[in-house]
Amino acid sequence: xxxxxxxxxxxxxxxxxxxxxxHETLEKIISLAAYAPSWKNTQISRYIAIENPxxxxxxxxxxxxxxxxxxxxxxxxxxxxxxxxxxxxxxxxSYSTDREEGWQYYDCGxxxxxxxxxxxxxxxxxxxxxxxxxEGIEKYLEIPDDQELMALIxxxxxxxxxxxxxxxxxxQTLLSYR
Length: 178
Ligand SMILES: Cc1cc2nc3c(=O)[nH]c(=O)nc-3n(C[C@H](O)[C@H](O)[C@H](O)COP(=O)(O)O)c2cc1C
Hints:
The protein has helices at residues 3-9, 23-33, 53-63, 68-71, 102-121, 134-140, 171-174, and strands at residues 45-50, 76-83, 125-129, 147-156. The chain has 178 residues and is an alpha+beta fold. It has a single domain, classed as 3-Layer(aba) Sandwich (NADH Oxidase), CATH 3.40.109. The chain has a four-stranded antiparallel β-sheet with strand order 1-2-4-3, with helices on both faces. α2 (23-33) crosses α5 (102-121). The radius of gyration is 17 Å and the shape is globular. 31% of the residues are buried. It binds flavin mononucleotide (FMN).
């Protein structure tokens, strides 16, 4: 897909068909997401693909009720985690800049968007989910202490096509020159 079209036609997809995303397709998506830029090429983002229906149900019911409508209809949920204290940190553990913890979240955002655009290229719909019980899911998924859960990304084949784009701000609002 041409890049401009990929950017313009990617939508947050919240309803999916029953067709599962194969491991082969997921691995192609991850191999493209790996090309996202990151602080000093630290590549801190990690992905856990949850496909066990009982686990999906438990996450939906107990840890992410706000997003239950999305998660209950998806066959694969990606837990995006990151390795802590690398992006934006010096080797001695001190912050590199006054952004402190912020760069690790920035890196995850770039990685997540790269993931979603790559998924779209393969016809896989996605939606980034930010509302959930982070500590609860970290314990439930046994995420190691050196990692933090960043976001959930529900993926699957869209059951609706041509979902309209929520309105965007115009360039005059977004851009200024000095
Ligand atoms: C950090 C972040 C958190 C989000 N959290 C949620 C969420 O919890 N539930 C949801 O349905 N959508 C969530 N979204 C999706 C946004 O609502 C969506 O990207 C926005 O409305 C623009 O629509 P589009 O992605 O189709 O362009 C989130 C998106 C981002 C980037």
